[in-house]
Each structure stands twice: as C-alpha cells, then as structure tokens.
Amino acid sequence: MMSLRRGAIAVILCSLALPLSAQQGQKEAPKTLPLFGYDEDTASEIEVPPKVQADVDRIYRLYDKKWTVPTIDTLYNGKIVGFYRKRNESDFDNVAASFGNYLPFTTPGVTEPLRIRLCGRLGISKNKWCTIYGHSVRFNADRASEWNFPLLTSHEFIHGKQRDLLGDANWTFLPPWVLDGQANGFGYGLLENLPNLTRKDIARKTATMKNANFSFFLGLRFYDHPLDVDSIAQSYPRNHPEYYAEASDPGGHITMAGYLTGSFFRHMLRGRSGGLKAVQHLMSRPSPRTKDSNAWLAWMDNGLKSDPNKIWPRGVREVYAEMIAELADMPDLIARARFGKLAADQYDKLLWSDGCRSVDLTTSRSWSGAVPIRALSARCFRVKLPPDGLDMTGEAASMAGTDMPPAFSVTARSTTGGCGDFELTSRAEVVEDPLVAKATGNPNDCTTKWHSYYLPLNPNAPGGLKGWQTVLLTNVPSRPANARGHMLQVTFIRPGAEATVDAEATVEDPVRKTKVKSRAPKPGPKPVVAPNRTHIVDRDPAPDCDAEGRATLKCGNEMTVVLAYGQVADLSASSNATGAILGHMYPQAQFTREDYVSTGNAIQKALFDEGGLSKAAAKLAASGGLPDGASVKLTLPQLADGQTGTFPARVDVGWLDVVRKAEAGVDSITAAQTRSDGQCLFVETRRSDATVTITMNDHGGLIGTLTARLYEENSDPESACRTPILPAGQLSLSFATPGVIYSGEGGYSFDTENYAERMQSAQSIAMQVAMPMAERSDHLATWPDGVFPGTQPASTGPAPAGRASTGQCSATTVTDADFIGFVRAVSAAEGEEPEPMDAEAMAAMRSMDRSMYTPMICRWIAAGRPARYTVDGP
Asked: What number of other Cβ atoms are within 10 A of residue 358's Cβ?
C-alpha cells in the first residue's frame, strides 16, 4: 500500500510539473519539514518563528537517523509541509498539536473526498496546494510552549509512523490507549537525548504546574486498574487529581488515561538495550482490522515475543512488570526528590486509586491481608523493616548498609488460580525465581512466594520515604488477553529469631586429655539468624515409627528449622546474601543512564565493599579460623495447613569449642521411662523436653515460640551408672520463617511453567548488556551528536590506554578540581550533603574516559561554577 500511495503522489506531481525533489518516494527522505503558518482570524499566511522551525527540523532529522521520518503528503508549492496555526478566540479546541487529514483553508462547496485529493486542477483558488490524503502535522501557536513543543512534535510524528507502518486503514482501528499511548511513549522516549528533556527534566519543569502536564508527560495514571483502559471504561475512576475533562469525552478521564499509558510504551522503547528494535519489529507486523482492544493486546504481546532480537521475550508481561516498578519509585530513582508533586502523599495519588498499603514490620514479624487485584494491573505496598545493622546515616544509605539488611518474603495465595500470573517487583527490578505451588487435585488453590531484600531508597533524603521500600504485586499472565482479577491473601514476613541459651557440654581437653565443660557461646545483641527460605517438606507416607521415635521426632515426616548466632550467624547471613547476588542481580536497571544502581550491585557492595562477607571472614580469621557461635536445629512434627497450638518439639544445639577445637552439643532428649537394677539406672524410653507454640502456620509464614530443657549423655562411666543423662541447660526462643509447603500425596506440586521463559529472558538480558553502544536505544550517549550541533562541547577524544582523557571546554581544560566541584554542586542541588572525594573515588574517576561527563561540566563552568547546580542549569 505504501509504494502505491507514493507512486500516485509522484504521478500527480509530474502531471503538475512540480519538482520531483518533493516526491516522498525517493530513497532519501527530506531533511527538513517546512511549516506553513496560518492565522485563523485573518485567514492569511503568517511567519513561522525560526525557533519553532528549527525544533521541527531537528526532530525530523532525528527520526530520519533513528527510525526514518513519517510520511507527510500535504504539499505547498511542491514542498512537503506541516502547519503552524494560530486559532481564533471562538475555537475551544484544546488540542495543541495533531496529526491528520489537514489543509489550512476550508473550501466551500468541495466535498471531503475531493478536498483530500486537492491538487490544483479542481478550479479551487488555493492552487498552490497538492495532496492525496492530506496527512500532516498541525501545531497551535498559542498552545505549544517552548519546552513542550519538541515533545508534542515527536508525539505527532509517531502518529505518522503508525499510519506508515500499519497502513491507512488499520492505524485508524488502534484503540485510544494504544493510539495515543504509543505516541506519548515512543515519541517522548525518542527525544530523551535532547538537552533538558529527560524524565528528570520533565518532572522538574512540570512539578509546579496546576494543569495535567506533570502526569501527562510522565505517564502517571491509575495502574491499579487494567492496562487496557478502553475495555473497562465504565469502571475506570473519574477522580484522578490531574485529569481534566474534554468536550469530546463526557467523563474526561479515559481519554487521558490512554495518553498517560505512554509510560508503558516508553519503557518498551527504553527499558532494554535494544528496545527500538523491538518496537520496530512490533510495528512492522500485520495488525488487526478491528477496534477490539483484546485483539490489539494480543497483537502487541505476540509481536514482542516473535521479535528475532528477543528484546522482550516474555512480551507484555515483562514490559509491564519492569515499567511499573521503575515508575513507582521514579521520584527516588530518577528525580531524586520527594517534594511537591513528587512527595509520596501526592505522587502515590497519581498512580494508585486504591492507595499504597503500609506494611510495617518493625514491631511485628508479619503482615497479612486480603488484597483484590484487577486484571492487567498492579497493587502497591510500602514495607518497613528494622535497620538490623543497616547503615542509615552513611554515604551509602541509598544503597546498602555496613551489614546485610534482613530479607523478607511475600506470599500471594489464591483460591481462584492464576498464581503463575503474578510478579513481585521492588527498586525497579523484578524479584526473580518465585515459588509457585498448586494443590494436588485443585490447581485453583495455589500460592506464589518470593524472597526479596530490604534496601530502602534514599532513607535520609529530605522528604524521602524515611526507610520505607516500595514493593509491587502485578497481575499480567503470559497471555495477557486471558487476564482476570483475583482476591489474594497476601502475607509479608520478616524471618528472624531471638534466643536465650544457657548450656554447656563435655569435651576433651586436647592437652590434658581430660574431660572439661565447654559453655555454649551466648547470642550477641543482634537477632539470631533464621531460615529465609520456604521449607518444602515431603508429605508422602512416612515409614513405620515406634513410640520412642515419635516422642523424640527421630522418624516420621519432620520439619527442621536451623537457627544460628554469633559468627555462625554472620557466615550464614553472608552465605545467603552471596546466593542472593546470583538470584537477584537483575541488570535491567543498569541499562539507562538515570543514575540508579541495581539491587544486586547494592548487595554486592554491602557484602564486599562495606562489610558483610569481608567482616565475617575477618572475624573468623581473628579467631584462628574457627567460628564463635552456635547453631540451633528445631524439629517440629508434621502439622496440617493452618494448624496452630502447642506441640512437642525437638532441639539440637551444636557449637565448636574454639579453644579446644572440639565439637560440642546438647539436645532436648531426656528419659521417659527408666529401670534400676539396684546399682545403676537404665533408660528404657526417651522423650523430648521441648514444647513449641505455633501462632501462625500457613504458606505465608510460620511463627512461634519454644522453650526447652537441654541434656547430654553422661560420658563418665562411673557417674553414668547413677545419672545416665545430665542436665545441660535451657533454651528459649521465638522465631519466624517464611512457612512450610508440603509436597507429594495430599500436598502441593510445584509449577515450572514459566521457568523456561525466565531463563530465556535472563539470556536476552545478558546478550543486550553486551550489545554495541551504537545499537542501543536506552543509553543517552548513543544518540547522534551531529543531530543537534552546538549542544556537545568538544573533547580531546579517547584517552590512551590506562589513562583518562582530558576534557576541553573550548580552550578551558576540565581539571580534577572542576570534576569535584561539579559533583558537589549537583549533590547540593539534589539535597544531598556533599562528601569529601575519597582516594578510591578519585582513582575510579581518573580511570574513566572524561569525555562522558565533560559536556555537563562545561555547562556548569559556563554558568560560573555555581555552588548548587542541576543538569538543566544553576
């Protein structure tokens, strides 16, 4: 269809003897798009401001470099043009710019089919005009401001791309949320290389505006309602703080929500290294000839999944989960501010019609509640845990503390199925490797469980979240058209334990070869480490077990909870965190240059740079390589789902005598029945002298308390005759773990349906990380400098091997002092206390190619080296 249309234009141009240079069928598209100015009050041509013409030309050329320019087939004197229009006062049209079938002059008596084929041979006085379809871009001079004009221009060019790629007929079938969501998202995403047009810049420019610009340009709509707003127009809320009513839309909200879905499409373009490739593939596929929104949702999902570049191999689900996680924390991740509209109490109201639930785990180890979640939507939680060693005051407070922060688990339990449809996200990342369990014989009874990490963003920033961490639950299935709502029982749990242990055991002194008492190390001031993973216990029938075996929990189906404290706890926590680096090192957030460090990197920093593993290793080395601590193994009987109460239990406590390098241990096993032969006492049967009280027992968590008397076998042959079992002390503890899921007969099976998809996604991310910079669409530095001459200060070029380049601002060399001053000025503007530049940071800075940051420093120098500076000025 495209070649036929362009061919027709060429024929008409030739018949009019118009210059062939105006034909759009040529291989090389025009480098400029001249604008025709028109004043509706006087019905006459007006001058187009040079700045406006220059902006349009620059954006037109950028499209030519990155994606090819859209087809525009309205001509004036043989030249392809757009329209710059000044409206009369009686025109209440609120549209600032639009793409469509436009000519500046109305033609009385000429029907629409003739008008759109106007080419100077119809006896019409406006014989300088020629058009086949009349598609062009129109701007209202009195509506477009200087800063948003480029964004509006790019938005309209995307409509042109939609028409080009989907065809004249099919692009009109696009549902509004896709039509204008794509135009906003792709249009704005393509312009983020422009100076002062990043999301941070847009947030700052619009934060004080009373109209909807703030939400409109950032894409802040109610995402706890379905992504596909057109399918639920009747139930979509009408109370968004920044929507305004439009004459063409009595409700005023659904149309705007479609535009604001641009945040989803922007992420499709910029959220991955090869996002533009994915978008190009998607838009090149045959599209539905229907306005049915589900058909377009399936088209979009299948288009992403069929992309040979495998940018978004999991389709819409993957884009949505990453997008909403980043958008929810944008004030901390991108804007680095929590003031005005970016403050949580205001910002949350623009994203969540049902609010963001607070989950305070500082005073309780668990939170549980019924949570409805709609199809193709997300629910917001804000979680807070005790610091537990997290450094809340140091330079790294925005990332991680001196010791590993505690983990938490989240469980979503459903009685209506769909558990494989849910994702958990936090800190702009998808929490990997969820456990999905389905009841045998009833797959609708299912549970999804995640284990995440607590690394609150900017806990000390003025106006910040004060140590609260945003956690989102999303409901987008692998086939989005099959999405449905659910009522979930959601549980958060903070694993951990507190213990009091007073016990001693008999060990052998290696020098004196005598038996001596070794006292168990006491727990330190920090909580005892508890398991932070779900316990999966086989529920298959157990082998036969005698009465003593049952009394001591030596056989049968058992559940073991291993606790640790002292250096053993440090090693255990570090080991868990090391494993978390592999499971939680999700590099998606590293793709952009928006100054965000991924959770995996933050954990690694906490482990190796700020303590964690290195501190544990140092402590261990100082003790001669032997850990000073103990482990506590707690064994419980098999309990039914939800069963609570008081039950017998078993405790085994073990430690290493660091002086004698001998293992020591005691347990809760004592005599039940004894007999005497008159001289010695013999133990006939045994029992456990430990009792556990369970107060919570479901897939979400297992919480309880335990008391136990501890014993050991008497190793002295003489006294053992009279006292075969010796009292060894006592133990009390409280614990919380992520819960027990029984597998096998009468239990649950584990769903691995999404495992292959997740593996494929991980591989695609790894491939994109290695993608050549010239092919990436998420990195600001990849855009062509030549598109906007004069915006990039000169640099001396790449540095010799092993040495950083020296940046230049005209004749001024950028020095180390300039770099430090620039960092301090930006920190001050962000509300952060500038810290002294340490030697490590200086060394890292010197090892970098300074050409990356020279342009920003040059602008700072040109501004007079102010003490407070933002990227868009002092």
From this structure: 11
Q: Where are the beta strands (DSSP E) in 296-355?
A: none
Element spanning 500, H or E: strand 496-508
Query: What are the pLDDT digits (tens) for 198-239?
Result: 888 899 888 888 778 899 999 999 999 999 987 777 778 888
Q: Dihedral of the CA atoms 636, 640, 641, 643 (nearest 10)?
A: -80
Q: Are 560 and 766 in contact (CB under 8 A)?
A: no
State the average pLDDT for the chain: 79
Mapped onto helix, strand or coil, the DSSP state of residue 736 is strand
Regarding beta strands 366-373 and 486-493, do their DSSP bridges make them parallel or antiparallel, or are they unpaired?
antiparallel
Tell me the C-alpha distance between 387 and 551, whole Å: 40
For the cut 90, the answer to whether the pLDDT of residue 179 exceeds it is yes
Model confidence at 596, in pLDDT bands (50, 70, 90)?
low
Distance CA 138, CA 84 (A): 6
Residues 550 and 556 sit within 8 Å (Cβ to Cβ): yes
Tens of pLDDT, residue by residue over 348-384, are 999 999 999 999 999 899 999 999 999 999 999 999 9
From residue 713, give the alpha-carbon distance in Å to each of 22, 620, 689.
99, 30, 14
Q: What is the pLDDT of residue 670?
A: 96
The yes-or-no verdict on residue 496 having pLDDT over 80 is yes
Token pair 């610091």 is found at 387
Residue 808, CA atoms < 13 Å, CB-side half-sphere:
8
Structure tokens at 72: 């525009």
Residue 638: the pLDDT is 86
Question: Measuring CA to CA, which residue among 692, 767, 676 is closest to residue 731?
Answer: 692
* Cβ atoms of residues 274 and 768 within 8 Å: yes
DSSP 807: B
Please state, in angstroms and rounded to a whole number, the distance separating the CA atoms of residues 369 and 358.
Answer: 11
CA distance 699 to 489: 10
Instruction: Please tell me the distance from the alpha carbon of residue 665 to that of residue 735, in angstroms, as a whole number.
Output: 21
Nearest to 830 by CA among 419, 534, 461: 461
More confident residue, 107 or 733: 733
C-alpha to C-alpha distance for 257 and 228, rounded to whole angstroms: 10
* DSSP result, 415-426: SS--GGGEEEEE
Taking alpha carbons only, the member of 265, 276, 107, 211 closest to residue 771 is 276
pLDDT bracket for residue 313 (50, 70, 90): very high
3-state secondary structure of 644: coil
Q: b/e for 660-682, b at 16 or more Cβ within 10 A? A: bebebbbbbbbbbeeeeeeeeee
665 falls in which pLDDT band (50, 70, 90)? Answer: very high
Q: Taking the mean position of all CA atoms in its chain, how far away is CA 57? A: 35
What is the mean predicted confidence (pLDDT) over 132-137?
79
Give the CA radius of gyration of the chain: 34
Average pLDDT over residues 822-830: 72
Q: Report the residue count for the chain.
A: 874
CA distance 787 to 791: 9
Predicted confidence at residue 246, as pLDDT, reads 57
Alpha-carbon 553 to chain mean position: 44
pLDDT value at residue 251: 57
pLDDT tens, residue by residue, 434-462: 999 999 889 899 999 998 888 888 777 77
Distance between CA atoms of residues 728 and 668, nearest Å: 9
Dihedral sign for Cα 261, 263, 266, 268, please. Answer: negative
As to burial, measured by CB atoms within 10 angstroms (0-12 exposed, 13-18 middle, 19+ buried), residue 807 is buried
Tokens of 323: 């997008």
Burial of 420 from C-beta contacts in 10 A (0-12 / 13-18 / 19+): middle
* pLDDT at 89 exceeding the cut of 90: no
User: From CA 421, how far away is CA 314, in angstroms rounded?
Assistant: 12
**Alpha-carbon separation of residue 827 from 332, 815, 834 (angstroms):** 14, 18, 6
